Amino acid sequence: MNVRRRRISGIAVTAATAIGLGTLSACSSDSSAAGNTDKFDVVASFYPMEYLAEQIGGDHVNVTTLTEPGQEPHDLELSAKQTARMGEADAVLYLKSLQPAVDEAIAQSDVKTKIDAATLTKLEDHGNVEHDHDHGGEEHADEHAEEEHSEGGEHPLDPHVWLDPVKYAEIAEGVAKSFEKADPDHAADYRKNAEALAKKLGGLDTAFKDGLAKTDTKVFFTNHAAFGYLAERYGLTQEAINGLDPESEPSPARIKELQQEAKADGVTTVFYETLVSDKTAKTLAKDAGLKTDVLDPLEGITDKSKGEDYVGVMEANLKALETALGAK
Asked: pTM score > 0.70 for this model?
């Protein structure tokens, strides 16, 4: 899936997740299993899942994330200690196919409630946008070959559903039902919190519809093919700089192709992300005479994020798109 091939060693992950592990350890220190504490303990795989768990769970849950702020989630590797601790939680919330190491650990875990967000909405094949973005290499691609379209496509289904507020709301509804079933004593509150979240996401969907209804162009460039669902939802066309590592410069042929498209479609901006280098985007922008800006795939919140949470960053993304596309 991702051109960002920055492998993180188990040692580095262990150090980076010390805070998360400490939290999880604290959750289980009073009993033999985290599920026997006074809160419903949830392990979330990365930020979009963490946000859902916190919003829906409210005061009744203790949420720990496997991916710390600033970590690129796709190539995350888990320590044996993290994997063992996962089994002490009451529930784990993840998005299958996004983080292969997490998928494997969950499959082998004895955690009581396993919630796969990918089963709570429909994943789609966005075609060649995932070229060279393999989510873990050939082995992982082979494991999910059966999920690919039978027409001969060589790309997995796009997992970036959280960037579509409508699909994200569908996932939230499913998560709430899972929480209600696993922790029935607080079912009413989970339902109430989920309804409040649905209103937030509904408002966000309306803002995107209204803000992007009339624009000078419908095409945007990005170095990470993460915005297929968002583009499809709001009638836009995502053009990713496929097959290029963020640290390398685009090939002359690709630059020429994008220059031509920029002129034909009135593209003004090349978007880059907060968690990776902006070198590729700036190289393309310079050669094509375009501007650069941030379009955040929301894989993690850091001090560089243009917002404190999911809704805040998505609102910043909308403003960036409105400016780049020439919204009326």
From this structure: yes
Encoded tokens for 192: 């109430």
Q: Which amino acid is at 252?
A: P
Buried b (16+ CB within 10 A) or exposed e, 64-81: bbbbbeebbbbbbbbbee
Q: For residues 206 and 190, what is the distance between their CA atoms, to the nearest angstrom?
A: 24
64-73, 75-84, 276-285: range with highest mean pLDDT: 64-73
What single string gives the DSSP state of each residue in 130-172? GTT--SS-HHHHHHTGGGS-TTT--SPPB--GGGSHHHHHHHH
Q: For the chain, how far is it from start to end, CA to CA, in angstroms? A: 33
- Please tell me the distance from the alpha carbon of residue 85 to that of residue 306, in angstroms, as a whole number: 33
Residue 95 CA, chain-centre distance (Å), reads 9
* Six token digits for residue 262: 């920029």
CA distance 238 to 186: 41
Confidence of residue 87 (pLDDT cuts 50, 70, 90): confident
Name the token pair of 138: 């050939």
Better-scored residue on pLDDT, 318 or 10: 318
- Give 219-258 as a 3 state SS string: EEEECCCCCHHHHHHCCCEEEECCCCCCCCCCCHHHHHHH
